[in-house]
């Protein structure tokens, strides 16, 4: 019994110590620390996730709602206003047809439209893509930033104010407004769930092709007009008449079919390059959309889609038939006295 007690003897119970015996003892807390109110650290990752989720929700809403289509319409309207202001600015000429420095009535509206166009597009671009640089965003920057700089310099620099369209070298970027208008129209006419105007596929492609042709001609004419006035102003001054934007547009339109005309514009290297550019663009980009439209025209044609009803009444002619007998039978069978329904009977 004593031997078993020795084998299974329990260790003595530890006696509780007092604070006097352990004066330097530190308490150890192994639970969860709860901070006091007002001392919590902000969770930046959670805030970023919530902001990203909100941006995605706004992006989806703008991409699928009627508000997004209205915003597209606003963007297109601003582009049209910008193009109209550019064409209006080219009409500022003197009595001898020479371009004049633009006044405040031309420069201030163009500056305001460029600022509003850039601001609204940048806001929507950030909401939709999170700031990802796209072709449309780069085109918008090149279309709006140079005019803003040019107009700002025209208020302080006499040399810039005296240049063509009071823009200096930045006038070379002005024709990009027509390219941006084409891209904005393509975005407006894109099919969607909340389109402002319901268009068939044929109507949409026809409008896109028409807008592409018109905006391309307008852009090339604007480039030709600004480049000639900026680089070849001396050659234009030697001419007997004014060379305005509409002359450049007429020259580009005629060059597609009849070739260049020296009666409208001087025969220079840049004019020849423009003619080659127009012909190249027409040869490369026009066949594909024109072919798609022709295919859609055939698909909506009632004649190409007609197929006879397999349940149409029919008559079988059997026996040894000669030509005379068949002609007499068909003449009598398809007589109008039998009614119009007999015309749908197959023999």
From TrEMBL:
PANTHER family xrefs: CALCIUM-ACTIVATED POTASSIUM CHANNEL ALPHA CHAIN, SLOWPOKE 2, ISOFORM D
Top-level division of the source organism's lineage: Eukaryota
Alphabetically ordered keywords of this record: Ion channel, Ion transport, Membrane, Potassium, Potassium channel, Potassium transport, Transmembrane, Transmembrane helix, Transport
Chief subcellular location: membrane
InterPro entries per UniProt: K_chnl_Slo-like
One Gene Ontology molecular-function label: potassium channel activity
Listed GO CC annotations: membrane
Membrane topology of the entry: Multi-pass membrane protein
Localization per record: Membrane
UniProt source species: Dimargaris verticillata
TM stretches of this protein: 108-127, 134-155, 161-179, 206-228, 269-288
Name used for this protein in its record: Ion transport domain-containing protein
């Amino acid at each position: 019994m004593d031997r078993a007690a020795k084998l299974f003897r329990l260790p003595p119970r530890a006696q509780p110590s007092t604070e006097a015996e352990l004066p330097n003892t530190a308490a150890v807390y192994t639970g969860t620390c709860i901070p006091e109110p007002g001392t919590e650290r902000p969770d930046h990752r959670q805030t970023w996730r919530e902001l990203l989720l909100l941006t995605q929700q706004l992006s989806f809403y703008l991409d699928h709602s009627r508000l997004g289509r209205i915003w597209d319409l606003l963007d297109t309207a601003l582009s049209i206003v910008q193009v109209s202001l550019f064409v209006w600015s080219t009409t500022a000429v003197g009595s001898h047809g020479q371009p004049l420095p633009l006044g405040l009535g031309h420069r201030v509206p163009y500056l305001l439209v460029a600022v509003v166009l850039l601001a609204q597009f940048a806001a929507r671009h950030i909401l939709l893509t999170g700031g990802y640089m796209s072709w449309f965003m780069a085109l918008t920057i090149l279309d709006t930033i140079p005019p803003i700089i040019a107009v700002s310099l025209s208020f302080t620099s006499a040399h810039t104010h005296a240049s063509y369209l009071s823009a200096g070298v930045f006038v070379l970027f002005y024709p990009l407004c027509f390219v941006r208008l084409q891209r904005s129209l393509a975005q407006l006419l894109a099919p969607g769930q909340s389109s402002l105007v319901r268009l068939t596929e044929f109507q949409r492609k026809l409008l896109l092709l028409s807008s592409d042709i018109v905006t391309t001609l307008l852009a090339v004419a604007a480039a030709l007009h600004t480049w000639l006035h900026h680089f070849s102003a001396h050659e234009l001054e030697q001419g007997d008449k004014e060379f305005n934007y509409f002359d450049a547009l007429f020259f580009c339109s005629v060059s597609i079919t009849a070739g260049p005309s020296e009666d409208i514009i001087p025969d220079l290297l840049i004019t020849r390059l423009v003619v080659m550019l127009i012909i190249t663009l027409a040869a490369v980009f026009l066949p594909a959309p024109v072919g798609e439209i022709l295919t859609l025209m055939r698909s909506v044609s009632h004649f190409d889609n007609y197929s006879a009803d397999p349940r149409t009444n029919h008559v079988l002619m059997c026996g040894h038939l000669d030509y005379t007998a068949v002609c007499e039978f068909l003449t009598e069978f398809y007589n109008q006295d039998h009614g119009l329904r007999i015309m749908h009977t197959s023999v």
